[in-house]
UniProtKB/TrEMBL annotation:
Substrate binds at residues 137, 167, 239-241. GO terms for biological process: proteolysis. This is Probable periplasmic serine endoprotease DegP-like. It comes from the Bacteria. It comes from Komagataeibacter melaceti. It catalyses: Acts on substrates that are at least partially unfolded. The cleavage site P1 residue is normally between a pair of hydrophobic residues, such as Val-|-Val.
Length: 523
């Protein structure tokens, strides 16, 4: 379970994750000051007596003194007064009596009844006239917010807008003069192994500086639909939420937001919202007070090696497996449908940026301003195609472009696919709750241990197509499967399951037995 982390705070944001279920994730921002020196091993020499006398070279670690002096005046501490916190808002997490989330992330359990509590976090100034960036969970539900500058000046702040899906909030203070501020950098240029510095307000200790390296990029921790965090090993703790993550050129490349921790303290696994995401969200919050996200109109799924084989996709020049987002379905009237995208297409790039999986596609589409023309690169029948698509707006009732899950793994061996097929009769259509427009063949039974079962085919699935060939009766399905086996090592089936269209790749041996067509056909 993940946990929000503000310093000396009396509230937080509870997040349940698909992964790290046994851990606690906390919002954060701080790090650990890098210093000391590192010895680089050199070839050792031995004298006539055989004694080894190492020849070493001392290498100094980066010195962040000048960087910190210049950026520290733009880093602020934030205090939010929260009365009767309401955790019912989206992103609030599970509940305890009184509306507080569990587990409560601070050193004090909530009390029943009406009361006012203080939550402390971090933030940073992005304009001379007083706009401040922080985390949504730092100010969520606040009746009063105070921003304390590096010199100790306390200013009342107004919440301009909040976005729970990315955990970003924009505040505005009214200073007596121009404020010193810092710029958002390009998070796409950040590389694992690069030194970064975090400044924040852990445990109320404003102005705390810590340092570390970027551990990874594009982390999906299950916090939200648009997760793409920068992972860092800089020590960050409670109260660091909303604070900046700097590269050595003094640019902010991330907003420290969460940590993975079994105890609530830093163990060197922290997560920051990339600055590219922050730019998009903050720009919209400043203009309208809310965030509008792009909408393409596809449901996509990840490509397994078996799927790649069935689609005829080849590994890259480096030998890496084929990647992309396999379009499982296209929404009627969507930008994708208007541009001609179809189920079975594989999206490989968006505006020239590689798409490795459905989550990457969802994140990048959501970040595009509605109305923007976008170039989508995709494969159809393994041939490169491009389309110019005008991204639409994802409404409140809309469905985000997303993954429907990884396709199941395929069996290595098996004499048959192992399915029994039946026509889609009116009775079966009613039992399965299918609309009149759905066409296909119903899987009435799956043989235990068969390739179909191991690939995840279930009784009640409706096979709509074998590869690119639509099927509407058992005989045609068997024929299409046999033809597919002659051309590929895997059979790609388009299936309707629980009202959702997905692709499943099945890999039987080529010595599959014949099926005798009838009311129910085995294959």
């Amino acid at each position: 379970m993940f946990r929000g982390i503000m310093s000396d705070v009396l509230r937080s944001n509870t997040i349940s994750l698909r992964r790290f279920r046994s851990h606690l994730l906390a919002s954060l921002v701080a790090g650990t000051v890098a210093g000391g020196c590192l010895s680089a091993a050199m070839p050792a020499r031995a004298d006539d007596s055989g004694v080894i006398r190492p020849d070493t070279q001392i290498q100094q670690l980066p010195n962040f003194v000048n960087l910190v002096k210049q950026v520290k005046p733009a880093v602020v501490s934030i205090t939010a007064r929260i009365k009767d916190p309401d955790m019912s808002e989206e992103g609030g997490g599970g509940g305890m009596p009184g509306g507080f989330p569990f587990p409560f992330p601070f050193q004090m359990m909530p009390q029943q009844g009406h009361q006012t509590v203080e939550a402390r976090g971090s933030g940073f100034i992005i304009s001379a006239d007083g706009y401040v960036v922080t985390n949504n969970h730092v100010v969520k539900g606040a009746s009063k917010v105070t921003v304390t500058l590096d010199d100790g000046t306390a200013l009342p702040a107004r919440i301009v807008g909040r976005d729970s899906k990315t955990d970003i909030a924009l505040l505005k203070v009214t200073p007596s003069g121009k404020l010193r501020f810092i710029e958002l950098g390009d998070s796409d240029r950040v590389e694992p192994g690069e030194w970064v510095v975090a400044v924040g307000n852990p445990y109320g200790l404003g102005g705390t500086v810590t340092a570390g390296i970027v551990s990874a990029r594009g982390r999906d921790i299950g916090d939200g639909p648009y997760d793409s965090f920068i992972q860092v090993d800089a020590p960050i703790n409670r109260g660091n939420s909303g604070g900046p993550l700097f590269t050595q050129d003094g640019k902010v490349v991330g907003v420290n937001t969460a940590i993975l921790s079994p105890s609530g303290g830093s163990i060197g696994i922290g997560f920051a919202i990339p600055s590219d995401t922050v730019k998009n969200v903050v720009d919209q919050l400043e203009k309208t007070g809310h965030v509008t996200r792009g909408y393409l109109g596809v449901t996509a799924q990840a490509i397994t090696p078996s799927m790649a084989s069935a689609l005829g996709m080849k590994p890259s020049a480096s030998g890496a497996p084929a990647t992309g987002a396999l379009v499982a379905s296209v929404s009627a009237g969507s930008p994708a449908e208007k541009a001609g995208l179809k189920a079975g297409d594989v999206v490989t790039a968006l505006n020239g940026q590689s798409i490795d999986n459905p989550h990457t596609l969802a994140v990048k589409v959501a970040s595009i301003v509605p109305g923007t023309k976008t170039t989508v690169s995709y494969l159809r029948n393994n041939k490169p195609q491009t389309a110019s698509i005008t991204i639409a707006s994802l409404g409140k009732g809309g469905t985000a472009d997303s993954t429907v899950g990884d396709a199941p793994h395929d069996a290595d061996k098996g004499p048959r696919l192992g399915v029994t097929l039946a026509p889609l009769t009116p009775d079966l259509r009613q039992q399965l709750g299918l609309e009149d427009g759905v066409r296909g063949v119903v899987v009435s039974d799956v043989q235990p241990g068969s390739p179909a079962e191991q690939a995840g085919i279930h009784a009640g699935d409706v096979i709509q197509a074998v590869g690119e060939v639509p099927v509407e009766n058992p005989r045609a399905t068997v024929s299409a499967i046999r033809q597919a086996l002659q051309a590929n090592h895997s059979v790609l089936l388009r299936v309707v399951r629980n009202g959702q269209s997905v692709f499943v790749a099945v890999s039987p041996n080529t010595d599959d037995g014949d099926a005798a067509p009838g009311d129910d056909d085995d294959q």
